[in-house]
Amino acid sequence: MVQGMRKGWAIILLVLLGSFAGIAVAQYKEGVHYQRIEPTVPTTTGDKIEVVELFWYGCPHCYDFDPYIKRWLMRKPANVEFIHIPAVFNKLWELHAQAFYTAKALGISGKIHDALFDAMHQGGRKFPTPASLQQFFAENGVSKDDFYKAFNSFTVKSQVKRAIQLTKRYGIDGVPALIVNGKYRVNSRNVRTYSEMLKVVDYLVRKEMAAAGK
């Protein structure tokens, strides 16, 4: 009889936990924890669900958020494609976006991304000019010629132009901001912590999976 009672309480506990989980999920509401983007911005990831982070290297909040993103990437679903896009609100941000895409063109994004963040937020460097960025790339093993060839290339300038357009189309007014499948926008002002910000993203990813029957 005792064993049966324990089993009964275990079932009740599971039901209650499930109810609490449902309540937690229900807390994420459109217009409160995230916003719908209208019109929807087309994605570039085919059948995969696209998650975009918009950031700026000079933003301390983006720097603090970066480790959270790295941990999230280790557990994200396989059918989710993550994309970094530098937000552009002024000429300095545009310059740093150009540095981001220059590193990408040179095949050293991973190395430069972390190093540039650290240089600005640990080293106090500002990188206000192309020459200051060239010096930084030189410190990371890139020749002057290779830097300027990539920095001034049509490909890099086209990517920066697109970043400017997407900053406007996503409707963001600050960073870090996350975009799910071109439909939903999540930023740090809508939630209490960076961890919760990513929980909202997880909720929206599940929502998109359900809509696609995945």
Explain the layout of strands and helices.
Blueprint: H1 2-26, E1 35-36, E2 49-55, H2 60-75, E3 80-86, H3 91-106, H4 109-121, H5 130-139, H6 144-151, H7 154-169, E4 177-180, E5 184-187, H8 194-212
Parallel strand pairs: 2-3
Antiparallel strand pairs: 1-5, 2-4, 4-5
Give the CATH level 1 class of the largest domain.
Answer: Alpha Beta
Q: Estimate percent helicity.
A: 55-70%
Strand order of the largest sheet: 1-5-4-2-3
Number of domains: 2
Number of strands: 5
Radius of gyration: 21 Å
Poorly predicted regions are 5-25
Average per-residue pLDDT, rounded, comes to 90
Discrete helix count = 8
Tell me the CATH superfamily of the largest domain. Answer: Glutaredoxin
> How much β-strand is present in the residues?
5-15%
Shape field: globular
* Helix-strand makeup class: alpha+beta
Give a quick summary of the entry.
The protein is an alpha+beta fold.
Short descriptors:
alpha+beta; 8 helices; 214 residues; 2 domains; Glutaredoxin; 5-stranded mixed sheet; 5 strands
Descriptive overview:
The chain has 214 residues and is of the alpha+beta class. The chain has 2 domains: 1-29; 30-212, 3-Layer(aba) Sandwich (Glutaredoxin), CATH 3.40.30.10. Helix content is 57%, strand content 11%. The protein is built from 8 helices and 5 strands; from the N terminus they run αββαβαααααββα. The chain has helices at residues 2-26, 60-75, 91-106, 109-121, 130-139, 144-151, 154-169, 194-212; strands spanning 35-36, 49-55, 80-86, 177-180, 184-187. It has a 5-stranded mixed sheet, with helices on both faces. α3 runs antiparallel to α4 and α3 packs across α6 (144-151). The termini are far apart. The model is unreliable at 5-25 (pLDDT under 50).
